[in-house]
Design goal:
InterPro entries: Postsynaptic (IPR001237), Postsynaptic_CS (IPR018293), RAPsyn (IPR052480), Rapsyn_myristoylation/link_N (IPR019568), TPR-like_helical_dom_sf (IPR011990), TPR_rpt (IPR019734), Znf_RING (IPR001841), Znf_RING/FYVE/PHD (IPR013083). By secondary structure, this protein is mainly alpha-helical. Among the domains are: 158-240, Serine Threonine Protein Phosphatase 5, Tetratricopeptide repeat; 273-360, Tetratricopeptide repeat domain (Serine Threonine Protein Phosphatase 5, Tetratricopeptide repeat, Alpha Horseshoe), CATH 1.25.40; 362-411, 2-Layer Sandwich (Herpes Virus-1), CATH 3.30.40. It contains 20 helices and two strands. The chain has a two-stranded antiparallel ribbon. A hairpin with a 5-residue loop joins strand 1 and strand 2 (385-387). The termini are far apart.
Length: 412
């Protein structure tokens, strides 16, 4: 298959894919991969296969094609191709919750600075790295990466990237419980979709609606949460987007749990868990198990709650997800207090505080914890964040956290 024919077949596959004929598109692209002698064409078709498998939640296949793409990039001996292929390898590992590998591949991308094309990918690299740091609950570095990605998006007038970063920032602030910002950023993403997204994939609309739904639920605006989640789910079903379907089912379950409708929540958690297991979203599974635990606690089935906690703890330890562990210790503390088991209660109180210290989840001004309840937060240029009211009350001449870190211990 020559260069022109390769190009035609790739375009044919894209047309089928955009018409929701995904399996036909995959067959066309696989034929190109088998028969094309054009390395640049093979590189491009591998990019199409990587994107398609990402959206279907077939993350192991996504990773497999990303590895082949790196070999093709080396054959082409072009730094731009190599940077793009390493970014796809980073994104594949991010989807599979291999966060340390993601960070390592992202750093490789940033060290391979080639031409202007490579520089344009830096925003996507920073976004992927930010998502990985967030998965590991390293909040300052996550925020630093998201802010870098946002700067790249503004400098290159890349509205799609800006939309994706806004959704990640919504997720970031939802995790540390600044629910005002958790809603602001996906609303901003939804505005970008409305203003610029006529030719975009509908996944951008679905993504912003899902993150709005999460923030609305956290704020107790359950009807708004349900409306946004239903819109997101509708698009996810139309496009066969399994990862988003799993997240929407989790959100629906959380909404029903917030309404104390445990019987309706359980089957939705089960459906979400089934898809999360199928696609390999272990971070999502932790969230599902946290929701299931809370349902058992509402029903006062404390031993069943502890069983769910045990499964979630194994996953959180395996991923290095410190925030998940903190939440689990907090739930254990409540359960053992109810059961009157003092030794177990003390153990989990100690572990909870160790997690808070490790993640620096406290305000460097007032010393109170961050992420315990809904609070307005403000980040300084160094990406350390504090209670907004503390910054307004005390002001700051530099970051107290950075000052503390710069004081080196003396040697005796």
């Amino acid at each position: 298959m020559g260069q022109d024919q390769t190009k035609q077949q790739i375009e044919k596959g894209l047309h089928l894919y955009q018409s929701n004929q995904t399996e036909k598109a995959l067959r066309v692209w696989m034929r190109v991969l088998e028969k094309s002698a054009d390395p640049a064409g093979r590189f491009r078709v591998l990019g199409c296969l990587i994107t398609a498998h990402a959206e279907m939640g077939r993350y192991k296949d996504m990773l497999k094609f990303a590895v082949v793409q790196i070999d093709t990039a080396r054959e082409l001996e072009d730094p731009d191709y190599l940077t793009e292929s390493y970014l796809n390898l980073a994104r594949s590992n991010e989807k599979l919750c291999e966060f340390q590998k993601t960070i390592s591949y992202c750093k490789t991308c940033l060290n391979m600075q080639g031409t202007a094309v490579s520089l344009q990918l830096n925003g996507q690299v920073s976004l992927s790295m930010g998502n990985a740091f967030l998965g590991l609950s390293i909040f300052q570095k996550a925020l630093e990466c998201f802010e870098k990605a946002l700067r790249y998006a503004h400098n290159n007038d890349d509205k799609m990237l800006e939309c994706r970063v806004c959704c990640s920032l919504g997720n970031f602030y939802a995790q540390i419980k600044d629910y005002e910002k958790a809603l602001f950023f996906p609303c901003k993403a939804a505005e970008l979709v409305n203003d610029y997204g006529k030719g975009w994939s509908l996944k951008y609309r679905a993504m912003s609606q899902y993150h709005m739904a999460v923030a609305y639920r956290k704020l107790g605006r359950l009807a708004d949460a349900m409306d946004c989640c239903e819109e997101s789910m509708k698009i996810a079903l139309q496009h066969g987007d399994r990862p988003l379907q799993a997240l929407c089912l989790l959100c629906f379950a959380d909404i029903h749990r917030s309404r104390k409708d445990v019987q309706t929540a359980f089957p939705r958690y089960d459906s979400s868990m089934s898809i999360m297991t199928e696609i390999g979203n272990r971070l999502g599974l932790i969230q599902v198990l946290l929701g299931v635990t809370k349902c058992w606690m509402i029903q006062k089935e404390l031993d069943k709650a502890l069983e769910s906690i045990e499964k979630a703890q194994e996953l959180a330890e395996g991923l290095g997800n410190k925030l998940g562990l903190l939440k689990l210790h907090c739930l254990c503390e409540r359960i053992y207090r109810t059961k009157g088991q003092q030794q177990e209660l003390r153990d989990h109180v100690v572990k909870f505080h160790e997690c808070v210290e490790e993640m620096e989840l406290y305000c460097g001004m007032c010393g109170e914890s961050i992420g315990e309840k809904n609070n307005q937060l403000q980040a300084l240029p160094c990406s350390h964040f504090f209670h907004l009211k503390c910054l307004q009350t005390n002001g700051t001449r530099g970051c107290p956290n950075c000052r503390r870190l710069s004081v080196k211990p003396g040697y005796v």
